[in-house]
Structure formats: structure tokens, C-alpha cells
Amino acid sequence: MATGDLVLGQEQGLKAARQRVVNDFSINVATVNGSGSQSANSVLLKSIFGMGVPVSGKNLFPSNIAGLPTWYTIRASKDGYVARKRDTEVLVALNPETAKDDILSLPAGAVAIYEENMNLKQHREDVICYPVPFDKITAAVCSEAKLRKLVKNMVYVGVVAQLLSIDLEVVEKAVKKQFARKQKVFDLNFGAVKAGWDFAAEKLVKLDPYVIEHMNETAGKIIIDGNAACGMGAVFAGVTVVAWYPITPSTSLIEATTDLLKKFRVTPEGKATFAVIQAEDELAAIGMVLGAGWAGARSMTSTSGPGISLMAEFSGLGYYAEIPGVIFDVQRTGPSTGMPTRTQQADILSTAFLSHGDSKHVMLLPATVRECFELSGQAFDLAERLQTPVFVLTDLDLGMNNWMSEPFEYPEKPLDRGKVLTKEDLDRLGGFARYKDVDGDGIGWRTLPGTDHPKASYFTRGSGHNEKAGYTEKPDEYTYIVDRLNKKFEHARTLVPAPVVTRNGTSKVGFIAFGTSDFAVRESLDQIKNEYKTDVDYLRLRAYPFTHEVHDFIASHERVYVIEQNRDAQMESLLKLDLPAEQVVKLRSILHYNGLPIDARSVTEEFVAKEQLASSY
Amino acid sequence: MATATATPNPKVNHIGLPILEYRGGKSTLCAGCGHNAISERIVDAMYEMGVQPERVMKMSGIGCSSKSPAYFMSRAHSFNSVHGRMPSVSTGAILANHTMTTIGVSGDGDTASIGMGQFVHLLRRNLPMIYIIEDNGVYGLTKGQFSATADIGSKLKTGVINDLPAIDTCALAIQLGATFVGRSFSGDKKQLSAMLKAAIAHKGTVMLDVISPCVTFNDHEGSTKSYKFMQDHDEPVNEIGFVASFDDIEVDYDSGQVYDVTMHDGSSLRLRKLKEDYDPTNKAEAVRTLMEAHENGEVLTGVFYINTEKPTFIDLLNVVDQPLGQLPQDVVRPPKAALEQLMGNLQ
Fold first, then answer.
1. How high is the pLDDT of residue A5?
2. Does the pLDDT at position A11 exceed 90?
3. Which of A54, A272, A437, B132 has its CA 20 to 30 A from that of B232?
4. Contact B92 A453 (CB under 8 A)
5. Which residues of A touch B74 (CB under 8 A)?
6. Do A288 and B92 touch (CB under 8 A)?
7. Which residues on B lie below 8 Å from A264 (Cβ)?
8. Predicted confidence (pLDDT) at residue B306 exceeds the cutoff of 70
9. Nearest-CB residue to B317 (from A264, A272, A458)
10. Domain-by-domain residue ranges, chain A?
11. What is the DSSP letter of A122?
């Protein structure tokens, strides 16, 4: 790979082309929001996937309907790294407004493909340039002027595919899949791909080293975004009531859920076994979730930071009145409106303690699309088992981007509907005390409205209540309930998913991360090992409250770096609250919070600086 | 026409339960509070209609009014939620189990100020439930501030005059889609009982604004929500007669001065016109009449609007008959083949 200050001329370029870089580089496509480049980006991504090469795609888009700059980065990685790469090697500059900045941001030796009239070559002598007459090529294959803006994107796919030696048949298959069953649309789009391909084959001389070669690393794998995977998890967990309010970047989670419900959850008579309601705001959305959870439904909502803030009061009610419900938080960059289309992991503290008073909540932290599917399902079981709201925290990077994954496995474990008394139970028991700890795990038994027994009802309230759900202001009756809630939260430690720990047994230093930081961290661990001959152990959190493995991990290391995507070291703070004093001093932070997904090189550099490691090179 | 229903046995209702089974806990509200009278009317209506108590969900928000579900029907399931948010909680609960009878009790602060956002959307959806506003024009638990239903010019005990216009919750409800809208007075036993029984028989959102004087903070000279003011200014638009479907009473239909409405459960509601040419099926006229009454300083009561045709939110969602919350795993978890199909499409 080209690095350093090397200035490449044509000749040197030719030399570089001979030192081929295979299946290990990033492509950055710069376009204008609303220009229809998504399909083209998806086709290119799936073409590389079709070549058997591990690939990931990230959409960097503005909070705008049309007209503002958008970038889509595709990373091909023979080693299977899917985190954002700090540098991109291949630029497709289709947005005149950003083209100059885009080419200036490339490392030396990189490639730029652009509309020939932009003359970007003047800005960078050290970048390999391929000017392409996109408009001319597009006009030749698309007679309808209105469609040219869209079709032009497919021309770039053809140019890039030819330059990178991606098989044309593989691209054709990807285009076919993209425009399934629409022959005319396929013809037009593949025609454009072919035109781009032919142009590159006839007119461009390959000067760069980047190529895609066949591998066998994607066979049997799927590509899906985290929001769709969460929605799928919810549907296979038997969700019946979905209440939501549109907000970026969580909206597509609900759309995916709704599509699947319509597909799989309609009876032969045409009746729905679910209800999806677009609420008037997030307060109403979580109110509906709790109402439905109280009355026995598996209910969910999905939101992002601003919605989480609005759900605060109800979250406290859910905690105190002990009502199940699942809340997805696809985190975006805060505070306030922040950057709605950029990513962060910055709702950790506000969600853990959402609401006034002594409130605390169970949080699940999926890192991969597969975990989105699995932990979503688990969230419903935990919510009903623990009779409390459960939050599933993903982020924009995981939720809205495409990720490669092993196929999801069917959940064979039966649904856990928790402690619910039936009419028969009540006949036998003669009554019950809703908020009494009869089993010693801090979880009471509940009944559902509609249980046909004169002793089935109880009075649910957010005001002070005793074990029989009666109103109280008596100090001992109040503390009985809140202490039991604490006991229940302690019990939750034994039920939530355990962390994933990788350790070699000798390392004195550990990393702790969660969610999408995982991809950068795993790549960074390899960099640290390869470049600095240093082993670092790694624990990936999957839930709050923390399980004993988290305490054990910190206790058995001298220094532990908590890597997270927020400014205030929120997860580190949460850990500090949980740890004995002598362990707290071991924690250090590596933080990333500029709205872009965290990358491995930044983690490595900060770690190396803090540890004062010397390179073994 | 008689509003009392004939019961086969004076001690039990037609499902065999004595009125005792409809009672609630002892009220902690002030002696003489209108809300207590409303709780009694609810007990009577549920008893007389023979509603199975455990088939009822009692919902509320926060405030004096919202405490009252504790004072009627202890055998019913109850959810006292957060301030102004009873509509959303009720929506969720009804979606989970639409086979229940749902009655929500709110106040003028809980509905017309903090809860306005959720209230109007409940009305739009025509969610099948009874929504009662126990309306006294003041915040009681915080010691007597005006609420948004206080009439312009009305006076607080401290002498403060309200200079903002009142929100007419009935006019709003009619405009936004509730299908049974009425106003009554906690002191009018006959009218309120008949209205509540008809409300139980209705399918859709029933919005009842019940003027319910606050004896501690808003029952003085200068208040427009006092017992005295209501006794002097109450102008019923119609007289309400209700005959339940199980009652063995022949309803003789006479034309002219009455509107006869057949309810979903087969009960009949007769509205005898007291105000000239008042038509409770005409939305625009209903709203106009309410607006004119404000100008004239009258407090209109009665059934202002009724529509038994409009589909409820549950109808629109086209859900299965069984409660969603009680569907078994084999219905709610798609089969293995479904996931395999999805995975295949993603490869």
C-alpha cells in the first residue's frame, strides 16, 4: 500500500500497479444527497461481496432530503476487517462541490475517478487520476433526460469494476438482485454499467495497484443492516404491539419490523396478529409500550437520543411499577439535536439512569448484526422475566450500514413470558400480593387484565405502593419495594448476556469496549500485536448491569482501557460506579466522538502513546 | 321515559352480582367533592349494565380526579399512570386486549393542559374507551391554580381573575373524531347515570366532560364551576333515556322531538330535544351550538354528538379477535422456514 510522502508520477504509478494491492483498500464515493446513488453503491458493495471478498459499506450522509454532499465508503478487507478505515485509496468524485476537498484528503498514491470537465488533476500531482466523461457516456445509453442523474451512478460502477478487475458477470448478478423482477429497469442500469466498463477498458490505462481478486470468504454469508436485524429479532421474539415516532436513525428499524409483520403475521383470514402505531410523539410511544406490556403484550418502540430524553418520565414509571417493554435506541451524535446522521455511543449514562429518583435500567449492547437479531429477542424475554423496561442500544453505524454476517440462527428456546399468574393459579392460591418477593429473586408475580378471577386485579401506580400494590407513604413499606427493586437489579446481572472475553493469560493490559467500537478494537489489537509485539486482552461488554466476568477481568489486569465513542467516558463512569475503589484507578479511556465511526488506527495510536510503546519496525 | 333498569332480583344485577362487588376503596378526596359523586355514578352504571368487574380496565393520569379509580370497582384492573399520559397508556392496554371495557378518568389539568397532546390524538383514533374529565377548573392538589377549562372572567378564592379563554373539550372532541360526546354535572344524578350507561354500550371513544365542583378551591361566588353556578346555568340540550339490551322494556318510537339511537350492543338511547332543533348527529351544528352557549354564558349539558357507524381504531387495525397479549408462541413466532427464506434472500 502506498504510504509516506512519496510523489507518484505516471511512471512510478505504473511501477505501483505492478506491486498489486489485493482485496485490502477502501473506496469513497462522493455524491449529492438524493441523486439516487444508493442503488449504485449497493451494487458495487454486493459485487465485491460476490467476488468472495469480505466487505463493509458506510453511508456518510447529511440531515437533508436532497442537495447536500453524501459519501459512501466501501472497504474490501481480505482479513475481514470491517471498521471504518481512516484513509481511502479510491475516490469516485461525482459531486463538483466537494471534489476539490475530496481529492485533497486522499493519501499520496491514491486513485481519483471523476467527471473529466472538473480537471482535478491540477490539485494533486501525487494522485492517480482517471477522468471520465460520465455525462457523455450516460447520455448515450439513456435517452430519457430525467433518468440520467440516476443512471450516471451505474456508469461509475462499471468504470470502478473494470479498473479493479471485478468480474462483469458478478456485477450483472448484483444489478439483477437490486432490481429484482424489473427487467426494463435492469436493462437500463446494466446498460449503464456496461458502458462505463467499456469506456474504462478502451480508454483508461491502469496505473494504480488496487485490485479485487476472487476469494472464498463470503460464501453462505448474508449482508444486512443492524436496524433490519433488530426488527427481525423482534418479530421472531413474537412482538405484538409496536408504537413509534419517526426519528433518524431509528426509523428503518420500525419499517423493517412492519414489513416482516405484514409478511409473516397475518392469519389466513387476513387478520393481523400485531398492531403498529405511529404515535404523536415519543412520550406517547413509550406510554403505549407500557400500557401494552402491562396488559400482557410483547411491546416495543424504537428511537434515538432526543426520543430517549422524552421517554424519561415513563421509563421511571416502567421501572417502579414493574412493567415490561423493549426500547431500541439507535444512538446518534448529541447533545440536543446534535448531528442526526452521524454516529456516537453517547446515551449510555442517560439511559442507564433514565428518569428522576432512584431509577436504573437493563441495557443490551449488540455489536454485530447477528447480535442485533439475537439480543433483540433476548430483550423481550428479559423484559418479561424482570418485569421492567429493557433498552437495546445500537448506533447509527450499526443500524443504518450494511454488514456481512453469518446467517442468523432460528431461536429454538421457547419465549419466556415471565411470572404471570393464571385463573387456575389464583383458584389455588386464593389471592396474591403483586409486589411481594415470594421467590427470593426480587421478582414478584403479576396478573394480566382479562384474567377471569375476582382476585386477579391489582392497582398499578407510579406513586408509593406497598407489596399489595396499595397506596402508601409509610417509610418501611416504601423501602421494602425499592430495596426489592435493587435486589431484582442484582438478579439481572445473572440473566443478561455475558461479555465476550479474549485473553492470552499473560497480558497485564486489557481493553474494554462495546457495540460498534468492537470492529476497530479488534483490528487495533492486531495492529498492536503485529507492529508493537504486544498482546492486549479484550472484554466486550454486552449488557448492563455488569456481570461478574467484568469485575474479574478488571481485577486481573493492571491497566484497563475503556474504548468508547463519546466525549465523557460514559461507560468508564458506569464501570467506576460498579467497581470497588482499588479497581477504579486501573481504568483509562480512549475516546472517539467526532461523529464518524471509530477507526483502528486512532485507537492504536492513542494506546501506543499512552503506554509509550516503541514500534518493532 | 324511565331511565331505571329493571333487575330480576333487587339484590343482584343481571349477571348475578350485588352492587357491593362494584365498590372501591374509601375515598381520600374532600367531603363533598364532585368526583366522589361521579365514582358513585360509575359504580351504579357498571352494576346496572352488568359489566363483569374484572373485565374492566380503569385508567388514569395524575391529579385528584386520577386518584378516583381507587374509589370504585376494586375488582377491576387499574393503572394510575403519569400526568397527562393516560391516553397513550390506555391505547397500549387496549391494543394488547381489546376485549376489555376501558374507562379512563382524567381531570381538566391532566387533559386540557399537560395532556392535550395525547388527548387530541386519542380522539382522532376513536379508540374504544370511555374518557371522563372530572372538570373543576382548578388544580386541587397544588392548592387551587386555574386550569385551562376555567371560564374567562371566573374568579379564584384569592381574587385572581382568569383572563384567558376556556378550552371546550367537548367541542374539540366532536371536531377531532370522538363518536360519543357529552357534558354533565356531578350533581345531576339522573342525567349522568343515563349518559354513563349509554357510554358503556357505545363502541368508540366516549368523551364525557363532567363539571365536578372543587369544594375546597372553586366553589365560591365568582366561580363558574361551583354547585351554585351549575344549578343556575345548566342548560340541557336533551333529556337522555337509556334502555339496556337485556331490559325487557318495549321502546315506543315516536318521531318529532326525539332522536332514537340503537347502540352496538342492541341497547337503545333516546335523546329528547330540549333545545330547539338540536341535532346530535350533526358535527358542525353541535360545535356551533357549544360556541354560542359560551357567548351567552350558558353551560350546556347532554349528549352533544353521537355516531355509531364510524370504525374504531381496533377496526382500522384489523387485528384478530383474540387479545394480542394472549396469543400463543406458535402464532406470534414465525416458523423456522420463514427465517431460512429471509436468510436466503440476503445471501
1. 38
2. no
3. B132
4. no
5. 457
6. yes
7. 334, 338
8. yes
9. A272
10. 10-211, 226-405, 423-492, 500-611
11. G
Write the residue in A450, A457, A462 that is nearest to B75 by C-beta: A457
- Check if A420 contacts B (Cβ < 8 Å): no
Least CB-CB distance to B79: which of A239, A294, A471? A294
Pairing of strands A402-405, B205-211: unpaired
Cell readout for A479 is 423501602
- CATH topology assigned to domain A10-211: Pyruvate-ferredoxin Oxidoreductase; domain 3 (3.40.920)
Q: Does A238 touch chain B (CB under 8 A)?
A: yes
CA–CA separation, A514 and A518 (whole Å): 6
- Please report the pLDDT score of residue A4 as a whole number: 37
Residues present in chain B in total: 347
In chain A, % of residues over pLDDT 90: 90
Among candidates A267, A277, A451 on the partner chain, residue whose Cβ is nearest the Cβ of B54: A451
- pLDDT score of A140 more than 60: yes
**Architecture of the CATH domain A500-611:** 3-Layer(aba) Sandwich (3.40)
**Cα distances (angstroms) measured from residue B145 to each of A47, A486, B60, B83, B166:** 67, 38, 21, 16, 14
Which of the four CATH numbers 3.40.50.720, 3.40.50.970, 3.65.10.10, 3.40.50.300 does domain A226-405 have? 3.40.50.970
Q: Is the pLDDT of residue A615 over 90?
A: no
- Scanning every residue of chain B, which has its alpha carbon at the shortest distance from the alpha carbon of A470? B70
Q: Is A45 on the interface with B (CB under 8 A)?
A: no
Q: Is the pLDDT of residue B2 over 50?
A: no
| Cα gap A253→A247, rounded to integer Å | 10
Chain B contact set for A272 (CB, 8 A)? 317-320
Inter-chain contact A283–B85, Cβ cutoff 8 Å?
Answer: yes
Q: Residue B251: is it exposed, middle or buried by C-beta count within 10 angstroms (0-12/13-18/19+)?
A: middle
Distance from CA of B52 to the nearest CA of A (A): 9
Q: Which of A7-16, A58-67, A322-331 has the lowest mean pLDDT?
A: A7-16
Q: Which amino acid is at B39?
A: S
| pLDDT above 60: residue B4 | no
Residue of A42, A181, A241 to mutate, interface with B, max B Cβ within 10 Å: A241
Mean of pLDDT over chain B: 94
Contact across the interface for A449 and B94, Cβ inside 8 Å: no
Cβ contact B77–A293 (<8 Å): no
Judge: B334–A458 Cβ closer than 8 Å, yes or no. no
| Structural domain B19-326, CATH architecture | 3-Layer(aba) Sandwich (3.40)
List of residues 6+ apart from A211 with CB closer than 8 A? A20, A21, A22, A23, A164, A165
Higher-pLDDT residue of B273 and A208 is: A208
Q: What is the pLDDT of residues A358-391, one digit of tens each?
A: 999 999 999 999 999 999 999 999 999 999 999 9
From B78, B118, B318, residue closest to A272, measured CB to CB: B318
Asked whether the domain spanning A500-611 has the same topology as the one spanning A10-211, the reply is: no
pLDDT grade, residue A65 (50/70/90)? Answer: confident
Q: List the single residue in A279, A292, A454 with the smallest CB-CB distance to B93.
A: A292
Given a contact cutoff of 8 angstroms between Cβ atoms, the answer to whether A492 and A548 are in contact is no
Q: What mean pLDDT, rounded, does chain A reach?
A: 95
Number of Cβ atoms within 10 Å of the Cβ of B284: 10
Round to whole Å and give the CA distance between A290 and B81.
10
